[in-house]
């Protein structure tokens, strides 16, 4: 991977619109939080102590221990611009918290960007694996392999009764956060989403927006993840999430089918109205963009729109984010300039899809 290549293309491999149940499940993610025994956790550590931890953990990729997994690049955040760090956040490759920690933070990134290993985030080490579609078990198995490799050189902070020790008490135990990113316009439009989300929270799962805790569920995208990390085994956590996500998929498919049968004209009007606005608008705010891209994506998945690919929609979801818009423009933009550039970019992409696919 060439230096800064993450900023040159919008789509990581896990965002290509492929994988099982990809019309509903955008991606599956497993994240493992670990800390080193005998070292202050990041929030209490001095710059020197954080730098010591970083250098120790970076011996893993630099020593070739991850070669059996794939090809990796080590990126020290202190070497990145603010815009480049924001692009990494928009691609879900680092957290907003790590983006703000530029002194002694780093990310170890695989060539296809499906593996992102964060150093000195909220915890010393956060191993993240992203897979396309509904592959939560596969993502967990790969993350576990990487965890074993790091444990060969790092003495983890572990308590026999409490499990792995983490900065946030909600991660103590297994240290695992597993999640699926789901596109649920059917449940939203049929007004079932609140009932479904309420039921989800009652079985130990959390619902967040596209960028995790505290973010809004823009574009009908919801991140479903485990809340409990203590008192359950890793396999119990993964199996529980898998089972609940499968039920949500079934409910979403039923809602989409019902809309096609009972209100097809209204559904077509919504989809093509959004497509028309996206194809011709001169100004497009972020929130409206997310919603109208969601409508078009639904139309693609239901076969109402056949000349635009899901991959194009995934790409636009990333390219239209503020960091990417400014990175591609080569300058900082005002809010209005971003809205104008966003609309232009969407028009260009839809026109290109139309030319290649043929209406």
TrEMBL record:
It holds the Pfam family ATP-gua_Ptrans. InterPro entries: Arg_Kinase, ATP-guanido_PTrfase, ATP-guanido_PTrfase_AS, ATP-guanido_PTrfase_cat, Gln_synth/guanido_kin_cat_dom. GO terms for cellular component: extracellular space. It catalyses: L-arginyl-[protein] + ATP = N(omega)-phospho-L-arginyl-[protein] + ADP + H(+). Residues 24-255 form the Phosphagen kinase C-terminal domain. Its EC number is 2.7.14.1. NCBIfam families: PRK01059.1-4, PRK01059.1-5. This is Protein-arginine kinase. The gene is mcsB.
